Amino acid sequence: MENPIKIAIIGSGFGRKVALPVYAELEEFEPVAVWSRQPERARELAAEAGVGLGTADFDELLSVPGLEAVHVATPVATHVQFAVAAAERGLHVICEKPMAENLEGARRIVAAIRSAGVVGLVDYELRMKQTRRRVIERAREVVGRPRMASVSLVQSDHADPDSRPYTWVHDAQLGGGRLQGYGVHDLDLILEVFPDVDAVAAATDVGVPLRRAQDDEMRRVTAEDTYALLLRFRGGGLGVVSLVSTARHGRGEVIEIHGDEGTVRLDSDRRVWWGRVGEELQSEGPLDASSTEAFKRVARNFWAAIREGAAPEPSLQEGLRVQAIFDAVRTADIERRWVAPELVTSSPG
Which of 198, 209, 230, 288 has CB 3.0 to 4.6 Å from 130, enough for a Cys bridge? Predict the structure, then answer.
């Protein structure tokens, strides 16, 4: 493709595992630089991916000739500093989720992007999975007003202290935890179907309190590996979002959306079931649930927004919408009460 977007990847976790390989594969993009806080690690990543620059100097990264866009894939607590600095340099920004530690930080990112007149997009890529896209589409067709929406995931990948090494994901001060990893995606899905959340309640837990770090020391885990969220919709209906990542036996995600006019269900075999009142449930699948393929859709949306002026999806506004619920969930967990999320008014982008 002529004139691919020159992009830099900021971060060596998701950025290395998913974002960088996808950008390298897609003809719409040309990865030109990668940033990591460790200089040697940055150079290694650049060499592995055949990228021209690997650096721990953020200003050097932003100064790459011809650079047009950045993907911020660092710990949540650092999103604001990187995204704002990039926007102020006139670069388009795709930011990992949640956008920031709190709604105030997320609004700072949005304000910087809009002030600079660049494209901004939030990587809620799981909604782009074929499974979840079909759930959303069918729910809009058949369910009507909400009665109960449920998203449940059981994983065994964090079941033992040595099953996953200690990283920022296990540090609450850096914005870690399974809520930022999975819960925000589930909130995003529910809000696509039932956007009017009146209040939330929440409980989180740490099932495995110690994990081994790269230096072989055992570190205390402060970010949740288990959660249960309860949502009350304005006008009636409830939502339940739960995850345990320390189970001894995992299973795929199960999504159920029940309304006054019909039902939609995604079972753990990746089959979607749906039907209206009085109908037998129909089904299709198993459908694709690849996160990598889902991210490719997000990346192409980013390209279309930059090169063709298409509406960014997932948008900054949708990022703010989830952030408001996420903040309320954190408060509800700490204070052990129902919390009304701050209203995020609708605006472009």
Answer: 288
